[in-house]
Amino acid sequence: MKIAFHAPLKSPDHPVPSGDRQMARMLIEALRLAGHKVDIASHLRIFLRDSSQAAFSALHHEAEREIERLRALWRRDGPPDAWFCYHPYYKSPDLIGPRLSAEFSIPYLTVESSYSSRRNQGAWKLAQDAVAAGARQAAVNVCLTQRDRQGLEATIPDGRYAMLAPFIDVMPFQSLGRAARDGFRLIAVAMMRPGDKMDSYRMLARALELVVDMPWSLTLVGDGPARSEVQNVFSPLPAERLDWAGEKPPQAIAGMLAGADLYVWPGCGEAYGLSYLEAQAAGLPVVAQRTGGVPEVVRDGETGLLPAEGDLVAFAAAVRRFLADETLTAQFGERARRFVFEERSLSAASRRLSEIFDVYVRKMA
């Protein structure tokens, strides 16, 4: 099928790296692996930073111009077979795809659409109305977490839903061996910015203060506007235990993970977190919180430990458990790697998308 792909929050070609951009790119690769021809239909960013009516109106005007451009293009060259929208939500609704899909009678699909009634404020309510309308129209809403599916079903019980587990490209980890290292090394990979990321850094620093009696070192991979604040919250810890690696290109991350023993990241406000899958693909167990979509990517008690959300003492105890037992760490790491390679790879996602298309899309195209 010829698929028009749109990610209203961040185009796959956006210059700033993020989990959203990474997942958009991987979805395109999974679709292509399944035999589809995928084109990025629009690079227009539809992002409503605050619930401003004026801002929402301006986005609508930009979307109208994009609709006119695509309408003319499709009338000349023919429409695609389907429109595939990644991650519409209350700040970033798809204001293009549903209109054109209805006009040209092609299937409309969403992936990682989300809806939360507590966001129904000001222009965000208008944006959520657009998200809900798109979900109702969709031939299928592909959900990456049960939380997203439940949020949609609560508002649109008659919608069509299918599950696709979060996944990564395991190729960079395929021939990766465990790198030689001195001592027990922890690692975390995340941007340094205010909000949820800062909350996770703050919790991690406080938890590590509770295990400072044990031997370990921590590599922090990432950078961003909150770097100085992150450094400040880690200042009570011995400086010699901290390796500030800074931002690294994606191709370097796999090797850095392979040089560590344990991935530690609380995951405050985490939708699911692709970094958890990358760490496990490198053979690392994970310590995170049992929150949001994290249980969708880490198997508690098998590939990592997920203490309750906000339980700082339990988080520290989980880290201590791995620090004290190298055999346990190795067992969890082996299971983690097998889990990602067998169930969360690009090829596994491609097969699952083919199943979803066969059930929900091909009969409408």
From TrEMBL:
Entry-linked InterPro entries: Glycosyltransferase_grp1
Coiled coil spans: none
SUPFAM superfamilies: UDP-Glycosyltransferase/glycogen phosphorylase
Designated name of the protein: Glycosyltransferase involved in cell wall biosynthesis
Organism: Sinorhizobium kostiense
